[in-house]
Amino acid sequence: MLIGRLGLEKARIPHADRHGLVWLDRGRLEVEDGCLRFVTAGGGELPAGDYQIPHQSLSIVLLGPGSSVTHDALRLLARHGCALATIGEGAVRFYTAPPLMPDTSALAREQVRLWADPAKRMEVARAMYAIRFDEIVRTRDIEVLRGQEGARIKRSYQLMAERYGVPWRGRNYDRENPNSGDLPNQAINHAASAMRAAAAVAVASVGAIPQLGFIHEDSGQSFVLDIADLYRHDVTLDIAFGAAKEAMKTGEPVERLTRRRAALLFRQRGVIPSMIDRIKMLVGPEGETKADVAG
Length: 295
Prior knowledge:
Its EC number is 3.1.-.-. Pfam families: Cas_Cas1. Keywords: Antiviral defense, DNA-binding, Endonuclease, Hydrolase, Magnesium, Manganese, Metal-binding, Nuclease. The chain is of the alpha/beta class. The protein contains ten helices and nine strands. The strands form two sheets. Strands 1-5-4-3-7 form a five-stranded mixed sheet. It has a four-stranded mixed sheet with strand order 2-6-8-9.
């Protein structure tokens, strides 16, 4: 006989990955007998059950659609230094009431140290472009790098359009009306929004400072944009052109299809864990995680 309120008494949810992330959706996060629990009737990633959450060893709980949280749960998480953020399906949106407070300032201090030194800041920017271009970039002029990026992204648009058989007439983006473009351009806008949300989760998870970017400068989310752009040429455009092709075939709203495809690819490709690794590799304190990433 099944025991427990919904059949899985004291079932323990393991870490989603080694970074201490747990993804929960379509249920209620609450406290019972001093333990954090998640009760769900199913319909999401978890089967119906009453699950115990190992909050003492978690970095962040990501609470998806169809979920609620009690006041006691928030107090327990705060007491143990575990962050809580609500997300869209598959982390294609990121909602939280900042600040999220990590238990160490080491990564943030290293980020500031690198950002404040023009030479070191340029080295981080070059490392970011090396990840994107899959080759060592020679120049140390940020404007030259941005010019190289512009030329390569134009080529990436064309190649991805050819791959998916989607008509492409060039990038057309109106900030005042992002839905005014054709289907591929709309899909790119929605895919970029989803990727920014994933990057925001990663940046918040490690306690990095979102305002201090190495390529982007003016936005309050400059570092988030830097990290999102590491995935622009492959994952973002794969999401966008795949969704545009499906929208042309089915007539479904391209925004819905883009979000659905983004959620799927984020999980399949481990995008957020990959972002966390790359943040630590780029600006993490020496000796803490860079060796692990390199290995």
